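The instructor's notes for this session suggest beginning with a concrete chain rather than abstract definitions. Hand out the sequence below and ask the class to guess, before any prediction is shown, which regions might be ordered.
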Amino acid sequence: MLMNQIKVFSLFLTCFCFFACYKTPIKHPDAIIVNCERKTNQVDSVRQLITGTYKWVYTEVRDRGFPSDSLQTPSSIGIHRTYVFDENGKVRYFENGHLQSTCNYQIDYEMKISTYTLDSMATVIATDPLTGKKIYNFRAYLCNDSALFYNPYGRSDFFQHFTRE
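After discussion, reveal the predicted structure:
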C-alpha cells in the first residue's frame, strides 16, 4: 500500500516538474534560455543563471548510487527549504521561512577535462563570510525555472529538486 502511494506521488511530482518547465520567466533581456529537459551544468551558464530564489520540491535519496524508495518532500519531513542566491555573491538559506545561514558563494570548475568549455562541470562553493572556509559545495544543474542540486561525494546521494522563482 505504501509503495503504491510513493509511486503515485513520484509520478505526480514528475508530471508537475515536467509541466512546470514550459514557463519561461525571463528577468533580463539578455538572459539565456535553457531547456528544462536538459539542465545545464556549464560554468558560464550556471554563473549567469544562479541568481534567484529556489524553493525545495523534493529530494531523491540513493544509497551508494543505487535507487531507493526514499523520497523526501516538505510535507514528509516538515521542513520547507529555500535558497536565495544574490548577485553580490551571497547565498541565504531558509528553513520554514526562518534564516538559517548566510554564506558567500562562488561558481567554479569541479574539474576541467580539456580547454573546451563544454567539458567542464560547475560546482557551487559556499564559504563562511568571516573565515573563508568552505562550508558545503554541490553541483548545480539549472534551467530557467527549476534546478537540481547534487553532491556526489557522500555515502548517500541526495538529488535535491527545486523550483526557481
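Then share the key points. Residues 122 and 140 are 7 Å apart (CA to CA). DSSP finds three helices and nine strands in the chain.
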